[in-house]
Design brief:
Helix content is about 35%, strand content about 25%. The protein is an alpha/beta fold. α3 (about 105-115) packs parallel to α5 (about 150-160).
């Protein structure tokens, strides 16, 4: 499962967000966000609290309707499309706070997602997916009995069970210890090598450094930077609004 694939270097982006806007009353949560992501790429979406990162994912995955701008997926305009249709097209996400069916077992959670998402592997892909995310030992346990880290992996498993081509991951690293973070980073890199495009929202810069190919930095709902983490660390605006000045000794 999730074997490496060859992706042409000149491949077009699978997802392009242009001028994305979202308002909540008088609050402009997104004020024209733009970026793209290619198959096999891990794009980090970072920025200070309130910068619009999760709102951006919520709009992209159909939880909110955009108030302006476009979202193009595989050559098709999908802005404003509801979540269930996006899942069937190939866009899914995990949540900062996992949302499993707590009364169901781990296996039942993943089987339900696979069936709902129309995964061509069906139930045959559930066991390998649990093994990949190290949930096989908890397959018959209720989701409510899992640790926080296991619930995060179950949330990812349910998203992957729908066979996404674009996977949005919202603060997966929160609450994990360094060893768990390194393991999760390795798993995400393996998904990217298998051709999945990943958009990772995260605050933990060490984790971002391990997993991402490129960053987009948001501030007050707008892009202020696009490039590598090392480049971001030298950008005065990014340092001022997000990373902070280095300690003086």
């Amino acid at each position: 499962m999730f074997e490496p694939v060859d992706i042409p270097r000149d491949a077009k982006p699978i997802l392009t967000v242009s001028g994305l806007m979202k308002k909540f009353g008088s609050l402009q949560a997104l004020g024209g966000v733009s970026f793209d992501v290619r198959r096999g790429e891990v794009l980090g979406l970072v920025g200070p609290n309130g910068s619009g990162k999760t709102t951006c994912i919520n709009v992209m995955t159909g939880l909110y309707r955009p108030d302006g701008g476009t979202i193009d997926y595989a050559g098709r305009s999908v802005g404003g499309m509801p979540s269930h249709k996006l899942v069937h097209l190939g866009i899914n996400r995990s949540f900062q706070i996992p949302k499993p069916f707590k009364s169901m077992t781990v296996r039942q959670n993943i089987e339900t997602a696979a069936q709902y998402g129309g995964n061509p592997r069906g139930r045959s892909g559930v066991r390998p997916l649990m093994e990949f995310l190290e949930l096989d030992g908890a397959a018959e346990r209720s989701a409510s009995e899992l640790t926080s880290a296991q619930q995060k992996m179950l949330d990812v498993a349910r998203a992957l069970a729908t066979d996404p081509k674009v996977l949005c991951v919202d603060e997966l690293g929160a609450g994990l210890n360094p060893a768990e973070l390194a393991h999760v980073a390795s798993l995400l890199r393996q998904l990217a090598r298998a051709g999945i495009a990943l958009l990772v929202v995260e605050h933990l810069m060490d984790f971002v450094d391990q997993v991402t190919d490129r960053l987009v930095v948001l501030s007050a709902g707008k892009n202020i930077f696009s490039g590598s983490l090392s480049q971001a660390a030298r950008d005065p605006q990014v340092v001022e609004v997000f990373l902070g000045a280095p300690d003086e000794r």
